[in-house]
Write a structure and sequence with these properties.
By secondary structure, this protein is an alpha+beta fold. It is 24% helix and 24% strand. The chain is elongated. The two termini are 49 Å apart.
């Protein structure tokens, strides 16, 4: 692997790991991470998939509103609430005004049943209408009374804004819910329904939200509400086409010791993650260092070999044999110069007559000629003055 490829790999790993250094699964974890209480949009992670939410911090509670853009994420609803005795619903009117209201079970049922929060399911509850669900799913489900309680012909209903809104179930029809449709294809409900004072009581007693706390339209859903037998059925299209949002409640810690313990646990988790990432980085740096060292050693060895070839006493140069057109090499001799004119009975040896194959030289020391102080023009370097044609 080249250095550039390895560097790109390390960078990719770091980019991929970064979102998980502070990956939260609930608005409560967002709050506890740095004790921040600013309401606003956040991204949670369920099964390593992003879930865009709006975290609304109010007193000792935080409400999680899920975005419609998260319709294709397997949302784990159990991570988004710690209480089921109430919920918050927000309403967005056509003119952009936003209201909110707290909803609960009727006072007489609060010790018998909690609310139900479901993602694309309604265990133990009736609903929603299949002719609407087939076109507008997935959905969030808010159940008031389960089937086991709605089958009785009794006074039923819901509580909103500290008021009970009731009806008598005339035929034991087991519907008691509000469905919040993601409706990714913007489909129109096949069953629209009608509204009345009982069904819209939670809207009429809602309170205006300050503009600074308003949520974007992506957090507001089409809805379907069904009560009874003799209660009513309506959708967002039957009440001036309004949109609604479901806020799931989680209790923030009021005990300082428990708060410190939770933050300590999260700090330990963060430390472990940091150590793992640090170890990965250390290994990567070590690999890069080893690669650089190996390359440096190989380069140095090649440089030394090349240098030795250039400076060697046995350095040879190519020569050409005129007769055979073959190339030979002659060793670089360190023999002294020969003054051919001063050798008795000798003659100058021309390049054409010199037998290179024999590799013979005249050694002045052997013939007793120690005086080499002569005219430089009379000296001839036998080996180097070759005809290189």
């Amino acid at each position: 692997m080249s250095t550039l490829s390895l560097s790109l790999y390390i960078y990719t790993v770091l980019v991929c790991l970064y979102p998980y250094v502070e990956a939260f699964s609930s608005c409560k974890e967002v709050y506890l991470s740095k004790n921040r209480n600013n309401s606003g949009e956040y991204v949670l992670y369920h099964n390593e998939k992003p879930v865009k939410v709006y975290c609304f911090f109010e007193g000792y509670w935080v409400y999680t509103f899920i975005s419609k853009s998260s319709y294709n994420t397997p949302i784990d609803m159990s991570k988004l609430y710690t209480a089921r005795n109430f919920a918050k619903i927000r309403i967005r009117w056509n003119n952009g005004t936003q209201n909110e209201v707290t909803v609960e079970n009727l006072t007489g049922y609060q010790n018998k049943s909690d609310l139900y929060f479901g993602y694309n399911n309604h265990t133990s509850y009736q609903g929603p209408q299949s002719k609407n669900a087939d076109y507008m799913s997935p959905y969030l489900f808010l159940g008031f009374l389960p089937i086991s309680l709605t089958r009785d012909k009794t006074i039923q209903g819901y509580r909103a804004g500290d008021r009970d809104f009731t009806f008598r179930n005339c035929d034991a029809n087991p519907n008691s819910y509000i469905t919040f449709y993601f409706n990714p294809n913007s489909s129109h409900p096949r069953r629209v329904g009608n509204s009345d004072i009982f069904m819209t009581g939670w809207m009429d007693y809602s309170s205006l939200i300050d503009n600074s706390l308003s949520m974007g339209s992506e957090f507001y859903f089409d809805f379907e509400m069904h009560m009874g037998g003799c209660g009513g059925f309506m959708t967002s299209y039957s009440v001036s086409n309004i949109k609604v949002a479901l806020g799931l409640p989680s209790g923030l810690l009021t005990n300082s010791a428990a708060h410190e313990e939770d933050i300590g646990d999260m700090g330990n988790t963060g430390m472990i993650i940091g150590l793992v990432i640090g170890l990965v980085l250390l290994i990567c740096v070590g690999v890069v260092a080893v690669i650089f060292i190996k390359r440096y050693i190989v380069t140095s060895e090649k440089r030394d070999i090349f240098k030795n070839d250039i400076t060697s006493d046995d350095y040879t140069i190519p020569t050409k044999n005129d007769q055979s057109h073959e190339y030979h090499t002659l060793e670089n001799s360190k023999k002294p110069y020969m003054n051919v004119a001063s050798v008795s009975g000798s003659r100058a040896v021309s390049n054409s007559e010199y037998d290179y194959a024999a590799n013979e030289y005249v050694d002045l020391d052997q013939i007793g000629l120690g005086n080499r102080e002569s005219n430089n023009d009379q000296y001839e370097v036998v080996e180097q003055k070759q005809d290189m044609k």
